[in-house]
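From: lab user (bench 3)
To: helpdesk
Subject: output format question, protein + glyceraldehyde-3-phosphate

Hello, I'm new to running complex predictions and I'm not sure whether the block I got back is the full result or only part of it. Here's what I submitted:
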Amino acid sequence: MALVTTTEMFRKAYNGGYAIGAFNVNNMEIVQGITEAASELKSPVILQVSKGARAYANHRYLIKLVEAAVEENPDIPIALHLDHGDSFELCKDCVDGGFTSVMIDASSKSFEENIAITKKVVEYAHDHGVVVEAELGTLEGVEDEVKVEAGMASYTRPEEVEEFVSRTGCDSLAIAIGTSHGAYKFRPEQCTVNEDGILVPPPLRFDVLEEIVKRIPGFPIVLHGSSSVPQEFVKMVNTYGGNMPNAIGIPEEQLRKAAKLAVCKINIDSDIRLAMTGNIRKYMAEHPDHFDPRQYLKPARQAVKDMVARKIVNVLGSDGKA
Ligand code: G3H
Ligand code: 13P
Ligand code: ZN
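Helpdesk reply: Thanks, we reran it on our side. This is the complete output you should expect:
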């Protein structure tokens, strides 16, 4: 199967009460880990490339890696998506370069500016058979060079979504309902402590999601910043020389609930980074005499695969849907 757009994936996910995982790719081990997990679980998958990934790995290398993954895994639908495109030019470059989906993220601009730039990207992308994700509302955290300070984020305003979607013609909409980017999504003082002494973050704003769905029924919703920061991996990092105090994510059951509603795409990157880093640190500590990168990248690739499999089964519910 050649690379596909997300149209069919989202239609089936919406109707089936599950979501498609969108995982960021930066190197060969990550591409292999994600697609091996998706293939074994017969799950559709979205591989996404950020501006930072392009700067790190070079767009051409990433496209070739993704093409190889498509050839190696012919039985599952795979989409190639630009994550957080910040300009028309960047989106155009990705459309021209073979991506099947692009995100234009003009969420930090005014409503009218966001509409204008999104509409321009949609016109170009649709002319070339490519779909577009847009964003309304802002998330806290770091995405590429943009850092949104804690307290400066704003939930998506349900009263704006209908006009935004109809005026831009976008194909899916990323919304802000309390997720945020990175491994430090909440400060401890924002959390409550449960009976086991574990910090529990504030729940996602399902009331906002429901209001949005009422206004644009059937329209695919996207959640960014959806890593759960599993504490066993934070512990692994910290045990083997790391220092990640108070790393807190979105509980997996909250995301599973969102996936059963109108959320068709869930973006997960930090959990992959955490799993790789924890396993590389562990391997290095246990094998101080090893210096062949293949030795420590092998468990790191396996950790990516295990993490993606965990997400497909526990969070997305997309197993068996390819
Ligand atoms: O939301 C951003 C993604 O986690 C990609 O991160 O900009 O460091 O590549 P990056
Ligand atoms: P996390 O940092 O929560 O993994 O979010 C990733 C993301 O939204 C990529 O666009
Ligand atoms: Zn994001």
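A quick orientation on your result: The domain at 7-316 is CATH 3.20.20.70 (TIM Barrel). Let us know if anything else is unclear.
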